[in-house]
Amino acid sequence: METIKLGVFLMVVCLIAAFGLAMTNRVTEPLIQEQKRLERMEAMKEVLPAATEFEEVANEGGEPAVYNIAKDASGAVIGYAFEAAPKGYGGPVVTMVGIDTGGTVTGIKILSLMETPGLGAKAVEPKFTDQYSGKTIEQLYLKDKDLKKGDIDAITAATITSKAVTLGVREGVEAMQNVLK
Amino acid sequence: MSQAGELILIIIGAVFVNNFVLSRFLGICPFVGVSKKVESAIGMGMAVTFVMLLASTASWLIYEFILLPLSLTYLRTIVFILVIASLVQFVEMVIQKASPSLYKSLGVYLPLITTNCAVLGLAILNIDEGYNLIQTVFHSIGAALGFTLAMVLMAGIRERLDRADVPESLKGAPIAFIVAGLLAIAFMGFAGLL
Amino acid sequence: MSLNELTKGIFKENPVLRLMLGLCPTLAVTSSLENGIGMGLATTFVLLCSNIMVSLVGGIVPKKVRIPVYIVIIATFVTVVDLSMAAYLPPLHKSLGLFIPLIVVNCIILGRAEAFASKNNIGNSILDALGMGIGFTLALSMLGSIREILGNGTILGISLLGSAYKPFLLFVLQPGAFLTLGLLMAIMNRLEKKS
């Protein structure tokens, strides 16, 4: 009998807590979603600077699940933007990738990562990400540490992170090309 | 990458490359508190392994099949910690019955597994890294092994330090941390493995 | 209400350097001063709310379920902090990452709830929380500053030692955290012995 009383007390406490959190969530969720949307917008503009408009497309059951068609002021399609999230050293490295209509990378931007500060975390620096601009699929391999010789310089002592980003971008571009066929 | 190959990599990753204690900084309190004797380190390691496996599997299932479909993901911290707390209570009872000597030697550190950031951290990481159920199980095995490994290594070293001549101000915690730092440097060498 | 309840958490009973509580975040988020301060303040906020709440309901909670109840209370405030930081302070939320929800298992908070707040009035519980929180933040800030200056040459992101200084990378990495904390504790021991 006593166990049941204790259990009920605990349940009541949990329900009060859950209620309080539901209220908090009501307030914060729209803000969090908006942050994410703005971040995505900014990242897309960075990787495809010539675009003035983005149209989101849901790719049912395919890779990537969602991508954006980038259009310029006249409405012509100038490229595509999508997110890749390859597994890095400490977790997924969420990357925004922009490609032009020919499949060449226009730029990438790292949105989030859980890599080692001072090493893998340096992936966000332009010194690393700028390398991807203007590369085609054949060039999207690391210069030294990949089976196929490519054009990307890995970050010193951060091969895992460098490999992950390169792989993510390359596979993403390949997937996009399949979608566009 | 074959499924099996990927799973092995997850374990190796969690034990060596991204050791929960020496790389992710999870489970430091018991790491410093229970690592004085190899025997208690092993005992604690086993208890934590058991809790980690059960807790992360239960948490994953609850998240996938209850929290996610009902859009209640913001409740995950509360739910996960409650799951862990209940499992620890359960494990306490089991150990008390099965091995009273182990129960005594672990003492207050057994209920403290609840506040072991490694257990909750593991549950959250499984979700954040997007693992499916099998990957979650293997990740948990790796995490527990890595934790136990770090503790046993530490205990082995500290048992010897006890007989060595340590300067007064360094005795106890300070020297333990310095040793941990050296262990961390050693484990950084594994970063090139994968 | 005694002022001692406030000051004890800062030096004599500093949760990190003397009581050895809350070590995981201490090591993990102190690679920069900003992260250290951010975590310290977030934890202090949860500590304050939880101490107040536990002090208020301490009387009516049945002894046998008190720990789970405290845990739920703490977890609730932690989730509030988690969601608020995600909404209002996204960069800090990203840097602190996994360790924000892990505030719930920061032994300092549960420890103070059980050892102090459940048995004392609100006034003293508030002071206790503030003292411990400030002590925690101070310890994190010390560690964060040392690691950021030596390991990155900056403080709060501002370059301090100029470009000629080659950062001693080890300090912002894992081993650096352990070594710095160990040395800090040794120094504290030395100072205590002398006084």
Q: Roughly what percent helix of chain B?
A: over 70%
Amino-to-carboxy terminus distance of chain A = 68 Å
pLDDT averaged over residues of chain B: 87
The helix tally of chain A amounts to 3
How many E-type strands of chain A?
5
For the CA atoms, what is the radius of gyration of chain B? 17 Å
Spans of chain A of at least 5 consecutive residues whose pLDDT stays below 50 are none
Which geometry of chain A do the CA atoms define?
globular
Give the mean pLDDT of chain A.
85
Strand line-up in the sheet with most strands of chain A = 1-2-3-4-5
Quaternary structure state of the chains depicted: heterotrimer
Strand content of chain B: under 5%
Order of helices and strands of chain A: HEEEEEHH
Indicate the low-confidence ranges of chain B by residue numbers.
Answer: none
Distance between the termini of chain B: 13 Å
Instruction: Give the helix proportion of chain A (percent range).
Output: 25-40%
Helix/strand structural class of chain A? alpha+beta
Number of E strands of chain B: 0
Largest interface (C-beta under 8 Å)? B-C, 44 and 41 residues
Which features characterize this protein?
heterotrimer; A: 181 residues; alpha+beta; 5-stranded antiparallel beta sheet; 3 helices; 5 strands; 19% strand; globular; C: 195 residues; mainly alpha; two-stranded antiparallel ribbon
SSE diagram, text form:
The complex is a heterotrimer of chains A (181), B (194) and C (195).
Chain A: H1 2-47, E1 53-58, E2 66-71, E3 77-84, E4 94-100, E5 105-112, H2 126-129, H3 159-180
Antiparallel strand pairs in A: 1-2, 2-3, 3-4, 4-5
Chain B: H1 3-17, H2 28-33, H3 38-67, H4 76-98, H5 100-106, H6 117-128, H7 133-163, H8 173-188
Chain C: H1 4-7, H2 23-28, H3 33-57, H4 66-88, H5 90-96, H6 107-115, H7 122-152, E1 154-155, E2 158-159, H8 174-194
Helix pairs in contact in C: 3-4, 3-6, 3-7, 4-5, 4-6, 7-8
